[in-house]
Hints:
Blueprint: H1 4-7, E1 16-17, H2 18-24, H3 29-63, H4 70-88, H5 92-95, H6 97-115, H7 121-149, H8 155-184, H9 187-207, H10 212-217, H11 221-231, E2 241-242, H12 255-262, H13 268-298, H14 303-330, H15 333-354, H16 360-388, H17 391-421, H18 426-456
Parallel strand pairs: 1-2
Amino acid sequence: MDSELSRSPVRPTHGVLVSDVIDRRPVGRFHYLLLALAGAVMFLDGFDTQAISFVAPAIAREWGLPVASLGPIFSAAIVGLMVGYLVLSPLANRYGHRRTVIACTALFGILTLLCALTTGPIQLITLRFLTGAGLGAAIPSLVALTSEFAPARRRSSFVMFIYCWFALGFVAAGIVSGIVIPHWGWRAMFVIGGIVPLVLLVLLLRYFPDSPRYLLMRGASARAHATLRRIEPGLPADAVIRADYSSVEEPDRGRVQVVVDLVRGRWFLSTLLLWTAFAANLAAFYAIQSWLPTIVGSLGASSRVVIASTVLTTIGGILAAIVIGPAMDKTNPFRTLGIVYLGGAAFVAALGLVIGGGSTWALLGTAFLTGTCVTGGQMSVIALATVLYPPGMRSTGVGWALGIGRLGGIAGPLIVGSALGAGFLPRDVFFAMAVVLVVASISVLMLERRSRTQRRA
Length: 457
């Protein structure tokens, strides 16, 4: 073997730190398989989350529902996501990330299939809520496990890579629905969204790994050793594997205790700043995604321009992740994201200026640039959470940041709607969203300063 570990066999009496095995090895087949499986689950999460937007109008026509009744159908999964983020994701500290991901994938696959059998809105709302809870519980574990197996020098890139697949799931839902619904009806969308996760379940059961640190804390040292040998085949069979947790970071704690740790002592201000960045970013993201089509359309643009301007915000974020992730790994991740948010503020303000200017190309170009920072920033701040929190707190930290941030995502579109209803111009609304992104930038930069102080201490 050409690895450092295999050239210098480790003596069992000294032991081997998990982080040493992970960080010293180059990215290889194990990592590619992990990224493929995690990315596939994230893709299906995104597909299932967005599919309801295209299915709901067809449901309303078949059931004779008024348009106003679609609101609870749309929001049921979002509320479920919050429950999954805040309540269910901390359970991974007890049951492990592997079990959590597998159970949640099975759960949202089965529940999505059941959605195809619904005969009324109450049944559908209930199932969408439960499906959202399963989706919300899976994402933090996917992010935490991916970041744990990523070499430290590639952690942000790994996390942003799998989150790109979540965004691609949004795009795929629109494409597939345009083909499936006209030919086979809306129920076929739920059949597809349910069967594919259950097929993927076979691969997850066979190949998806569990956290070696979690296994060690549970006394399953043989399984931890076998997992690490998938990364480093030259690891001596008699090597003693040690988890590299400090006494305050061990994962073998109660679910409530892990949540409390996020908001007390030295973590309180850091968590508060991270939550502020999440909420501000998601407020701007969902406000733009929700209202940009309506605003552009109300100003006389064609339906093709309306769709293109909205889709470009997602595509811009996906392409930006290719640049932002490596930049966060190679430079200071906090400063990188702070600059991204400042760029986002400038582009959102520019979008407000060009949105009624009559130039289609200026609108589309600015929408794309806005997406690079707003959508790209949303992916980046999740990667930042994995850098901020130690492994024992990572899943809960990511889950709660996503959950609290979702409050911003709910508030953003509501505030924009109220502002437009009160007579504010679209330009003024976009200027206000730019200010929100400046708040996100300040929060991240303050978090960088606090993290640097903590490292020195």
